[in-house]
Q: What sequence folds into this?
């Protein structure tokens, strides 16, 4: 299990809690309890996530965390989730109000305008830091709702009860705030260099409150350790940025959290950059490590310490909201609603006595309906089948009727010789429109006529008869020209129709003389 879990020397009595930080590559857990005035560490876990696990599935991740806790003999209990700085948005805002009722909503509106993600889905909490006559300075922190929902589902799958979701940096600030003279002389404002998680976090903590915070990506070397050069470069960049944006940018000292190797490698360089005393956190007066390895869990221990000391902190599970000034009015309305409900309940009891026979009759009708339902559905299926068969049969083409109609439309046999005709049916099946409740059987009938005519006039007359018919749309399938084998002029006509049978409708045979007479009559008019 990677680095594995570190067991403390002994198990002590008292209520215990769990703090979890889940990164993309690593899980960090501390399990500790409170004894008298000290936090006693019982177990710590620092383990790599399985490579074959879907890290975007909260249920799968939760089940794995539950199994990991069971393997470490950590009982399921209340849990605090620590979020890295990169997963939250943090702003220090000065708001033009000192009214506690206005402060939550004003903080939310001011914070929403500065978020890089959807402000409507943001969960926002804040800590008041400083008041003057007309304004209040707050530390506002926001996290996307989907991140919080992921944590809820994950802890449920792990068998844990979610108590708090906060920033890892709040734990570091708590450690410094309650540190009683560890740095000699004591430092009121401290630069925290947090190398615990998968990224570098830098914060300026002023008397236990975060004044400035920033996170940076850290390049890992081939052995999986953080690059000291990257850490030093990001600290130099953060220090310059902080001094530019904060008028009162003095810092009394720096404190490092993290693995022994990287902190030892960078502490001297950081001390040279900042020109101030810089120390590594190795112990704390209010934390009994009990022999556990702490370099990965110090900020998580700080979150537990703050929880037991009731210090103000960020909690996205229960963010600060405006006081409910209408609670008394709601209580009165609820009382009135209760009285009305009693009256209505009495009326409902009387009505129930009258409605019971009707309900029995309704039950009888429902049973009858249920017994007849299969027969009704079978009738509906048979009806649709019958209609489908009728529509399918309607697509059958009466080719003989078409041949008869075309023979009737053609000129005299001594004027035209029909060599052959070919009929084709394109049928797209039976279709039913559920919205309009309409059946259809789309089809298209094509007939190709090949023949020879005595002369061009006769061929044109035959085509005119086809065009003027009520059944067919005619077009030439080739070039009408001399060269027939029996009669001089060959022709090919393509006919289209949707009529399956022309029936016995009367047709007028084509002849050149008839066309000539009609043309003359038209000219006379």
A:
């Amino acid at each position: 299990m990677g680095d594995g879990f570190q067991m403390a020397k002994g198990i002590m009595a008292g209520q215990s809690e769990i703090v979890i930080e889940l990164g993309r590559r690593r899980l960090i857990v501390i399990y500790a309890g409170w004894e008298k005035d000290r936090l006693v560490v019982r177990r710590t876990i620092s383990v790599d996530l399985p490579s074959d696990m879907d890290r975007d599935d909260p249920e799968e991740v939760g089940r794995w965390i539950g199994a990991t806790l069971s393997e470490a003999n950590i009982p399921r209990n209340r849990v605090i989730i620590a979020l890295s700085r990169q997963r939250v948005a943090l702003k220090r805002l000065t708001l033009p109000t000192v009214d506690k009722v206005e402060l939550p909503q004003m903080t939310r509106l001011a914070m929403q305008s500065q978020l890089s993600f959807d402000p409507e889905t943001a969960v926002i909490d804040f800590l008041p830091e400083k008041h003057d006559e007309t304004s209040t300075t707050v530390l506002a922190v926001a996290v996307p709702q989907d991140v919080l929902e992921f944590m809820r589902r994950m802890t449920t799958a792990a068998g844990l009860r979610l108590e708090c979701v906060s920033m890892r940096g709040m734990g570091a600030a708590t450690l410094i705030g309650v540190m009683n003279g560890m740095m000699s002389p004591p430092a009121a404002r401290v630069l925290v260099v947090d190398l615990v998680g998968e990224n570098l976090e830098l914060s300026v903590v002023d008397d236990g409150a975060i004044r400035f915070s920033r996170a940076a990506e850290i390049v890992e070397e081939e052995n999986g350790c953080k690059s000291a050069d990257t850490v030093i470069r990001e600290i130099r960049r953060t220090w310059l940025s902080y001094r530019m944006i904060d008028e009162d940018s003095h810092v009394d000292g720096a404190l490092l959290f993290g693995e022994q190797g990287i902190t030892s490698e960078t502490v001297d360089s950081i001390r040279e950059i900042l020109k101030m005393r810089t120390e590594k956190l190795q112990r704390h007066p209010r934390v009994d490590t009990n022999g556990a390895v702490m370099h990965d869990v110090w900020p998580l221990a700080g979150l537990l310490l703050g929880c037991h000391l009731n210090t103000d902190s960020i909690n996205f599970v229960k963010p600060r909201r405006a006081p409910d000034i209408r609670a008394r009015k709601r209580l009165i309305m609820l009382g009135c609603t209760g009285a009305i409900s009693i009256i209505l309940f009495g009326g409902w009891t009387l009505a129930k006595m009258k409605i019971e026979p009707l309900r029995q009759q309704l039950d009888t009708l429902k049973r009858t309906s249920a017994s007849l339902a299969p027969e009704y559905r079978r009738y509906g299926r048979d009806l649709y089948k019958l209609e489908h068969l009728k529509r399918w049969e309607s697509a059958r083409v009466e080719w003989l009727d078409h041949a008869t109609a075309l023979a009737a439309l053609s000129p005299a046999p001594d004027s035209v010789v029909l060599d052959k005709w070919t009929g084709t049916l394109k049928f797209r099946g039976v279709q039913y429109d559920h919205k309009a409740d309409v059946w259809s059987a789309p089809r298209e009938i094509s007939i190709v006529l090949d023949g020879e005519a005595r002369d061009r006039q006769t061929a044109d007359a035959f085509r005119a008869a086809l065009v003027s018919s009520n059944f067919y749309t005619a077009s030439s399938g080739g070039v009408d020209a001399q060269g027939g084998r029996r009669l001089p002029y060959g022709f090919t006509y393509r006919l289209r129709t949707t009529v399956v049978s022309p029936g016995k409708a009367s047709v007028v045979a084509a002849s050149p003389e008839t066309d000539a007479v009609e043309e003359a009559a038209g000219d006379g008019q």
Observations:
- The chain has a mean pLDDT of 80.
- The first strand starts at residue 5 and ends at 7.
- Residues 327-393 form one domain.
- The longest helix spans residues 327-393.
